[in-house]
Design goal:
The complex is a heterotrimer of chains A (263), B (307) and C (296).
Chain A (H helix, E strand, L loop, with lengths): L1 H12 L2 H8 L7 H5 L6 H34 L2 H6 L5 H37 L8 H28 L4 H25 L8 H13 L9 H6 L5 H28 L4
Chain B lengths: L4 E11 L5 E12 L4 E5 L6 H8 L7 E6 L2 E2 L9 E4 L11 H11 L4 H14 L15 H13 L5 E5 L7 H16 L3 E6 L2 H7 L2 E6 L2 E7 H7 L1 E9 L12 E5 L3 E7 L3 H10 L4 E8 L2 H14 L1
Parallel strand pairs in B: 3-8, 3-9, 6-7, 7-8
Antiparallel strand pairs in B: 1-2, 1-4, 4-5, 9-10, 11-13, 11-14, 12-13
Helix pairs in contact in B: 2-3, 3-4
Chain C lengths: L1 H29 L3 H5 L5 H8 L3 H24 L8 H14 L4 H11 L6 H14 L5 H13 L3 H15 L2 H10 L5 H15 L3 H31 L6 H6 L15 E3 L5 E3 L21
Helix pairs in contact in C: 4-5, 5-6, 6-7, 7-8, 8-9, 9-10, 11-12
Classes of the chains: A mainly alpha (263), B alpha/beta (307), C mainly alpha (296).
Amino acid sequence: MLNQVGITLKSILRDRVFHGIIFSALIFLAIPSVASLSMRQMTELSITLSLSLLSFILLLLALFLGGTHLWKDIERRYTYSVLSLPISRTTYLIGKFLGIAFFILVVACLLGLVAAGVIQFSAGIYPPERPIAWENIAAAVVFDALKYILVVATAFLFSSVGTSFFLPIFGTICIFFVGSASQQVYDYITAPATADIPLFTKKAAMVVYYLLPNYSAFDYKVNAAYGVPLDGSGLLLTLGYFVIYLLAVVVLAALLFEKREMN
Amino acid sequence: MKKAIEINNLTKTYKGKKGAQVQALKGLALEIMPGEEFGFLGPNGAGKSTTIKTLMGLIRPTAGDALILEERISSNSARRHVGYLPENPAFYDYLTAEEYLTFVARAFDVPSNLLRERVCESLRIMELWDARKRPMRGYSKGMVQRVGLAQTLIHDPDVYILDEPMSGLDPIGRALVKEIILDLKKRGKSVFFSTHITDDVEKVCDRVGVIVRGKLEALDSVENIVRKGIEGYIVQTRLGLGRHEALSGFEIRGTNETFAEYFVPAAAFNQFMSLAGHNSVEVTLVETKRKDLEAFFLEIVEKGEAR
Amino acid sequence: MGGVKRHITLLVCICALYAAIILPFTRSMRSKPFAEKLGALPTVATLKFLSADQRLFVGSSLVMKVIIYFGGLTERAKNRIIIPPDYPAMSRTIHTAVKLDPYNSDAYYFAQAFLTWDARQFAIANDLLREGMKYRTWDWQLPFFIGFNYGYFLKDYRNAAHYYKKAAELSGQELYASLAGRYLQEAGQTDQAIAYLEIMAKGARNPVAKRSFFIRLTAFKRAKLVEDARDAFRKRKGRLPSSVAELVDGGFLAMAPVDPYGGEFFIAPDGSVGTTSKFAFKGSGGQSRDKGGAQQ
């Protein structure tokens, strides 16, 4: 398993697309000047922008790594040589997944440090009215990373059955958008006595809500930018949700991959 | 001794377009003995690769089963003692040959004290030593094939399954592969390899199987095939000496100033030789005239496809 | 295959765990305040840049967010669970949305719906609508809204008449012009509100907006009942009634009408009919002078 994780990390680090994405992290340097456009809340704005950029880079990485990694192995027929080794397909899949997940976590932490530097710099020029809630920012970064690890898992699920990269990439994007909005729709739908929404639509929306990952749960940007206190039990529940949902997706992906034919 | 490979009634059916069923393998049964070099012949699309991929657990059989060294192919450990070379292999091209072989050796649980040594050894055997530090994306096709062979050797398995090991290689590469297979034979290893080139088989194999349209149409030792294939002999005699008229019952294939060439059916060979002896005809050369393996192969394929 | 069976067993166990956590998780998610759900909005300039060629989409999704949020609240209010709406956040979001897509009629329509009675930010609403008029030059509804706001809330009848006239010109319907005329007298206030709400409710296709109009319309129609009873009372007795209860006791009203906003109808000393709810659900920041919508 560790062997597989190591190879996966090597493959990520040697990929040119990855270099391109990391290059985009240079945009961080532009944040202080953009944030100065804000009239009264420069620090808050630079927190928001830093976290948004971090989130965006992680999204690209998650989509690109999760969506193409497995597919590329199949497409380029690497699977023939690797899966004929005495390792199970589950080991192979989970090893790959762990490699990417670990990588996302490390990148999130590194970019988080860069973001912290940018925020500190902004705060140095225009001191904020309220002290910066560093622990909230850290929580926002970590939960963002968890969210994108979940995105990688869904991409793996699609990759384990898809034969081209269309399904993993576009399926994951769809799930990402729906999963980010599902909470709002759910709130609306479940408001009592919504008479003119057909029952069927409501039920369907509920099923979708419970089935799809709830990405909005991992969004703590407001807490980070405006120092809104974090709710401990909410964080714990989200963490528990993450672990269970992730396990379910990965095990399902492994199951489907085990049954797959390598033609 | 454990049988190297045992295939029982292996059947694979694919769902084709519009619900049509494609039978890639129809109840294949085969046994490969320890220390045996087995050539698996068949035209393109006959089911050679399907058989091999099924053995390696890449494809699940629809029915039947197979064992490698008495381990079921559905278990991961069946692949533990096998060196497998895929057809037109492709390896993680961002790795160097050295890195890749190290990865493979770890996957096979080669003990860490032997690991380095094994990697270096197989790189040297395959003449990849100078290229070992370069990423494989810059390798030629032949070099990639050699990496594939190095991968099969690295854990010193008892069974080798090679899918078209000679395809895409230049004559030097082919010679190297044949040499390696012969060396494995010497060391008592079992080799199961598929090919559509009969010449390769004749030189290295003990036994061949011919698969046509998913069915095993022939299974015999190379020796038997060769013996059965003898049609007769071409006998050369020196003119000017002895009484050649005595041999006039035999077909003359050609003459020049000094020699005559006769075609002698196998059954009449002894008679020809004694006649020649009695009549003081000097025999200068005897050549076996036989159907080669290629003809044997084509005949079987034709028969199989006519069915 | 043992492996597959093991996977399935594992999957079933995980699904059970999922079932166990999903309910508390959902409960926790539902109780998150609005701002957290809406997320922090970057400045308009940044958002314009980030949304690239998807400005219209981002703009309309922001409006949808507000509508869905508000819809959820009115639904709960109907069941007597009053959660104060976060009007400043809603206003901020709508303003950002129109900056991204100044043609989005939903934004104006909805802003008019909640910024007036609910948030009582008439000046902000009118500024926003005037801004929209620059783009939606064909849209009679925007001047119609402005006219109404001037006439009904700000008692600026000159401006009201001006904008009603514009609405009449754009729509080609005399109704709005005649409304303008009627606005010049205060006496017909409730009638005007009912006329306005009926037009609004008729044009509303979004169920949330429609329902909120109907609730308000019901409230005004009930106020109208009280007014009619008051007029009958005055005709018969030659003086103003002092309370709704007096009208009920005198047989002018079968019963005291219920205010759907949870307030109580009353008769002011000058005889005008009002309600303690001011025709709106109690909101946070609704009564305070929030400038959230104006700042960018």
